[in-house]
C-alpha cells in the first residue's frame, strides 16, 4: 500500500543519459579538470553521504538538526498554515521530519536527482505521516524546473537544508535563487540552511573525517565512472584531498592522481600528470550578512534567522 502512496513525477532522463555523459566529459576535458558534485549521488554515493552526516567531525548535519528541533515551533509560526513544503535535494527526507508535526503542511514534494533513493525515502515518509499528501519528483534542480501538475500549491515553502546551496559559486547561487524566485508566487517562503565561515581547523576536519567516509564518498565517483560511463581506470591510483580555501571561503575537494597516467572514460582518453587533480566539489561558506545580501540581490527578503550557540550553522527564512 505504501508503494502507491507517493505521487511520482519523473522530470529527468535516465541516469546515464547523453546530457549527463556530455557534462561529465566536458569537465574531464577542461583545464583544470573538474566534475560537478551532482555526480557523487548514485545510490552508493547517497548512502556514503548519509554516513558522512553522522561522522563526529561533520558538524553541519548534527548542528542543523539541533537548530530545527529547537526552532520548530518558531519556524511553524513564520511559515504559517496550509503550506506545501518543497524539499530540494531531499535525499533521505530526514530533516523535514523535524518540522512536519509543528508546521503541519498540507502537502510535501521531495525533489532529488537520485531516483531510487528518492522513491525509497518518500515512501517511508508517506507511511509514517498518513495525513500528509506526499509527492516525489526526480529532477535536477540545478537546471530549470517546473512545478509538477496535480500538486495543490497555495502557499509554497521551499526547504533547502544542509547548506547544499554551498555547492554553487556565489554568482550561481544568486542565479539559482533568482530561478526559484520566478518559479514561486509572491508570498512564498524559502527555509534554507547555510554553513557559516568559521575556524579553518573545524572546516578541514569536517571534510577529512578519521574514519575515511568522506574519502570513500569522493573516490566513489571513480567507481561510478567505471560502472556507468565505461571508465577504464584504477581508483586505487587516486587519493582524496579536501582543504579550506580561505580567500574564496570554500572547501575544495579533489581527486589527486598519485601517478602519471592515462585513463579512458566513454571511449575518450584523458591524461593525468602525477599530482594533477580532478576538482570534484566546492562547498562555500557564508557569513549571515553575506548570505542575506546575496539573497536580497535575488529578490528574497530576510524574515527570520536561527543559529546554534557556537555559530557553526545558520537557517534563514526568506520571503519572496
Ligand atoms: C551536501 C554540499 C552540503 O558541502 O558539506 C559533505 C557535501 N561533501 N562532505 C557539504 C559534502 C563532502 C555537503 N553538501
Description of the molecule:
Helices cover 35% and strands 25% of the residues. It has 320 residues and is α/β, with parallel strands linked by helices. The strands form three sheets. It has an eight-stranded mixed β-sheet with strand order 1-4-3-2-5-6-13-12, with helices on both faces. It has a three-stranded antiparallel β-sheet with strand order 7-8-11. A hairpin with a 2-residue loop joins strand 9 (261-265) and strand 10 (268-272). Helix 2 (43-52) packs antiparallel against helix 8 and helix 3 (59-79) runs parallel beside helix 4. The longest helix has 21 residues, at 59-79. The two termini are 38 Å apart. The model has no long low-confidence stretch (mean pLDDT 93). Bound molecules: N,N,N-trimethyl-histidine (AVJ).
What is the average per-residue confidence, as pLDDT, rounded to a whole number? 93
Q: Provide the helix percentage.
A: 25-40%
Main sheet makeup: 8 strands, mixed
Q: C-alpha Rg, in Å?
A: 20 Å
Shape designation = globular
- Order of strands, main sheet, comes to 1-4-3-2-5-6-13-12
Derived from helix and strand composition plus strand pairing, the structural class reads alpha/beta
Which hetero ligands occur in this complex?
Answer: N,N,N-trimethyl-histidine
Report how far the terminal alpha carbons are from each other. Answer: 38 Å
The tally of strands reads 13
Task: Extract low-pLDDT stretches.
Answer: none
Note the run of SSEs as H and E.
EHHHEHEHEEHEHHEEEEEHEE
Please count the helical segments. Answer: 9
DSSP strand (E) fraction? 25-35%
Amino acid at each position: 500500500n505504501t508503494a502507491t502512496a507517493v505521487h511520482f513525477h519523473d522530470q529527468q532522463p535516465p541516469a546515464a543519459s547523453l546530457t549527463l555523459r556530455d557534462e561529465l566529459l566536458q569537465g574531464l576535458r577542461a583545464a583544470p579538470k573538474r566534475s560537478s558534485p551532482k555526480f557523487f549521488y548514485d545510490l552508493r554515493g547517497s548512502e556514503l553521504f548519509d554516513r558522512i552526516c553522522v561522522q563526529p567531525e561533520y558538524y553541519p548535519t548534527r548542528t542543523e538538526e539541533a537548530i530545527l528541533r529547537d526552532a520548530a515551533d518558531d519556524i511553524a509560526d513564520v511559515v504559517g498554515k496550509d503550506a506545501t513544503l518543497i524539499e530540494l535535494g531531499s535525499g533521505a527526507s530526514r530533516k523535514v521530519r523535524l518540522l512536519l508535526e509543528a508546521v503541519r503542511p498540507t502537502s510535501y514534494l521531495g525533489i532529488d536527482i537520485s531516483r531510487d533513493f528518492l522513491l525509497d525515502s518518500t515512501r517511508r515518509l508517506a507511511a509514517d505521516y498518513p495525513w500528509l499528501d506526499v509527492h516525489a519528483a526526480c529532477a535536477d534542480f540545478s537546471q530549470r524546473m517546473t512545478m509538477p501538475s496535480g500538486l495543490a500549491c497555495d502557499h509554497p515553502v521551499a526547504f533547502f537544508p544542509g547548506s547544499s546551496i554551498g555547492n554553487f559559486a556565489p554568482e550561481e547561487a544568486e542565479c539559482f535563487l533568482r530561478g526559484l524566485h520566478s518559479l514561486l508566487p509572491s508570498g512564498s517562503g524559502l527555509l534554507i540552511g547555510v554553513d557559516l565561515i568559521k575556524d579553518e581547523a573545524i572546516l578541514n576536519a569536517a571534510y577529512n573525517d578519521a574514519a575515511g567516509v568522506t574519502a570513500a564518498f569522493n573516490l566513489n565517483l571513480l567507481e561510478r565512472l567505471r560502472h556507468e560511463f565505461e571508465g577504464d581506470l584504477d581508483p586505487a591510483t587516486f587519493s582524496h584531498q579536501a582543504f579550506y580555501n580561505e580567500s574564496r571561503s570554500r572547501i575544495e575537494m579533489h581527486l589527486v592522481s598519485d601517478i602519471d597516467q592515462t585513463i579512458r572514460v566513454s571511449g575518450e582518453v584523458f591524461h593525468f600528470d602525477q599530482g594533477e587533480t580532478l576538482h570534484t566539489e566546492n562547498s562555500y561558506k557564508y557569513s549571515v550578512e553575506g548570505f542575506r545580501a546575496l539573497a536580497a540581490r535575488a529578490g528574497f527578503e530576510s524574515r527570520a534567522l536561527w543559529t546554534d550557540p557556537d555559530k557553526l550553522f545558520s537557517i534563514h527564512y526568506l520571503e519572496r
